[in-house]
Amino acid sequence: MTQTQERAGAGSALTLSLGLAGLVALAVTVGLGLTLPATVEQGEYARLIAIHPGLAWASYIAFGVTALASALWLWPTTRSLTWDLTAGASAEIGVLFTALTLATGSIWGRPTWGVWWVWDARLTLSALMLAIYLGYLALRRVPADAEVRGRRSAVTALLAVTIVPINHFAVEWWRTLHQGRSLAQMNPSSELDGAFIGAMAMGFLAMTLLYGWFLGHRVRVARLEEALDDDALAAAIEERRREAVVG
Predict the structure, then answer these.
(1) Which of 13, 35, 46, 150 is the right S-S partner for 42, CB 3.0 to 4.6 Å?
(2) How many CB atoms are located within 10 Å of the residue 90 CB?
(3) Read out DSSP for 34-95?
(4) For residue 39, which phi and psi values (nearest 5 degrees)?
């Protein structure tokens, strides 16, 4: 058994705790969402408020962590392979949450706006954000040594993250179809009913915990993949040495 195989055990106590807490929070979120009343404007689809804003929130966190980990990789005193792997893993999870945000938004938009998609500022920027980070992940797949891959990925991530605040404030800068920022609705003095605020807040918590759980496991898998590559390289070098001795 190789060292890599020996390290391929279960996750840590932290990831296990995050997973359990995330699943419980998600179950509570779904439960609260199902108990929300239908509204005149949005009907039964108003219940999507329990998960849709939380998904978008988690995507922002994911891309923010990608940028932070990239900056830590670029900084000479904190440079570590772990930060590069964390940046890539977090971007993958962010892409997942962004895709789910767009999907749940379309499901909500069809009965409410009458269309699955409209070139609204928030929707367009969310789709652009998804495309940018898919490009970032594709760039990470381009063959190169670890140093080159880390540098170009980190610089790209720091440039890409500028779209996150633009997307977040798009609903205030460009008044189109999409409603205002969800975080602004968390104020108890807002017009949003308290039950909706509570379900949305639980959704934020659930998605944040699930993001942490996914990130912990994805980074661990990425480290195992790196170790497998190292094992394969070491085995290939050893094989060539044996062939040279026999020759």
Answers:
(1) 46
(2) 27
(3) HHSPPBTTTBGGGGGGGTHHHHHHHHHHHHHHHHHHHHHHHSGGG--HHHHHHHHHHHHHHH
(4) -110, 160
- Which H/E stretch holds residue 245? helix 194-246
Model confidence, pTM: 0.85
Residue type at 166 in one-letter notation: I
Residue 183 makes CB contacts below 8 A (sequence gap 6+) with 57
Phi, psi of 161 (to 5 degrees): -70, -15
Tokens of 187: 């104020």
DSSP designation for 182: T
Per-residue pLDDT of the chain (247 residues; tens, 9 = 90+): 455 554 555 568 888 889 999 999 999 999 999 998 877 777 788 888 899 999 999 999 999 999 999 999 999 999 999 999 999 999 999 999 999 999 999 998 888 888 888 888 889 999 999 999 999 999 999 988 888 999 999 999 999 999 999 998 888 887 777 776 666 666 666 666 788 888 999 999 999 999 999 999 999 998 888 888 777 777 777 777 777 766 5
- List CB contacts of 209: < 8 A, sequence separation 6 or more: 18, 21, 22, 25
